[in-house]
Amino acid sequence: xxxxxxxxxxxxxxxxxxxxxxxxxxxxxxxxxxxxxxxxxxxxxxxxxxxxxxxxxxxxxxxxxxxxxxxxxxxxxxxxxxxxxxxxxxxxxxxxxxxxxxxxxxxxxxxxxxxxxxxxxxxxxxxxxxxxxxxxxxxxxxxxxxxxxxxxxxxxxxxxxxxxxxxxxxxxxxxxxxxxxxxxxxxxxxxxxxxxxxxxxxxxxxxxxxxxxxxxxxxxxxxxxxxxxxxxxxxxxxxxxxxxxxxxxxxxxxxxxxxxxxxxxxxxxxxxxxxxxxxxxxxxxxxxxxxxxxxxxxxxx
Length: 301
What we know:
Layout: H1 3-16, H2 19-26, H3 30-44, E1 49-51, E2 56-58, H4 60-81, E3 92-98, H5 100-117, E4 121-127, H6 134-137, E5 141-145, E6 153-161, E7 163-167, H7 169-175, E8 191-194, E9 205-209, E10 212-216, E11 220-224, H8 227-235, E12 241-244, H9 245-254, E13 258-260, E14 265-266, E15 269-276, H10 283-296
Parallel strand pairs: 3-4, 3-5, 8-11
Antiparallel strand pairs: 1-2, 5-15, 6-15, 7-12, 7-13, 9-10, 9-14
């Protein structure tokens, strides 16, 4: 039995709550993960996990053992990366999930520079706007806009994204140019709604001008939970959009989107990178987080 791989397999099963998800994140078969954990239990002569048909639960002995395993794996990695010549070359696979527009418009164009700097890091990039559970899904970190309220995650604020209000010329030709944000709630106007991870599924937009404040919800013809679809709906003339600069800039420059309420200030959107609070932060994850901060700095307010 390879004790290192057995401990690594056990820790990932605890973190994901599943042999299948642990196997996927470690790029091993479920059978291999099961055998490694069974061999570890046989060597220790204790039951580390309780298995049911639906869920895996860690035992009291398993929980205590897990705490030691996490520290030991972290120390082993620190020893390896602390060697001369190794410290400058983080390596291994890294699973990251980011919003789809950010992946398309910012991260993918910049990844050649990241790979040139860290050629030994294999990046598995999920591009989605769905709510991702890094613990259950074995994701090393996520990048998300909006408030971070999950206590199981540690979050680092990357940037405050500047937001603007936009609409397609076809929409404005049909609905007219609104003079005040509150007009967007009136009949004849529509917004494109985004489904946030909030109890009512969306958040009002706060706008300010000379001490005046307006909260805009508005009627919508379509609501989506994907940033690329949200942008496409606005370009198709389905309603008014609230967009960060990195999404709006190319379309505003071409005239495909026109800015609205330019004398109003829209509250910035915080952007976070977050990772499981109980998981060791590897060197490859640290350099990726630092790179995200460096990359997104110019996008902030």
